[in-house]
Amino acid sequence: MEKNKKVDIPIREKGKCCLCGEIYEHYGNNPAPIMFNGRCCDDCNENRVIPERLNRFKDAYIKRQKILVKHLNTSIPMEELL
């Protein structure tokens, strides 16, 4: 049995970025959470999409930390704080 056989996957040559309208090559990137359909170019992914994802993660983390601190300082059950 032959192992590690290379599989040819068709690559979409070009597409239009759903965020800036520029042409990208290959597969493009997932533009979520800014948009939930289409694909985006590497520039928009690096400068818009990834920072937005990090900001949303940071905001959710801070919110959870505040809830945890509030819970530790009170006798309110954690479920009621959420």
List keywords for this structure.
82 residues, mainly alpha, 43% helix
Task: Walk me through this protein's architecture.
This protein has 82 residues and is mostly helical. The chain has one domain (14-81). The protein has two helices and two strands. The chain has helices spanning 42-72, 78-81, and strands at 14-16, 23-25. Strands 1-2 form a two-stranded antiparallel sheet. The model has no long low-confidence stretch (mean pLDDT 84).
Summarize the structure.
With 82 residues, the chain is mainly alpha-helical.
Write the layout of secondary structure elements.
Layout: E1 14-16, E2 23-25, H1 42-72, H2 78-81
Antiparallel strand pairs: 1-2
How is the main sheet built? 2 strands, antiparallel
Distance between the termini: 55 Å
Number of domains: 1
Net shape: elongated
Low-confidence stretches: none
What is the CA-atom radius of gyration, in angstroms? 21 Å
Number of helices: 2
Strand order across the largest sheet: 1-2
The topology string of helices and strands comes to EEHH
Number of strands: 2
**Which structural class matches the secondary elements?**
mainly alpha
Summarize model confidence as the mean pLDDT. 84
> Proportion of β residues?
5-15%
Question: Helicity range of the residues?
Answer: 40-55%
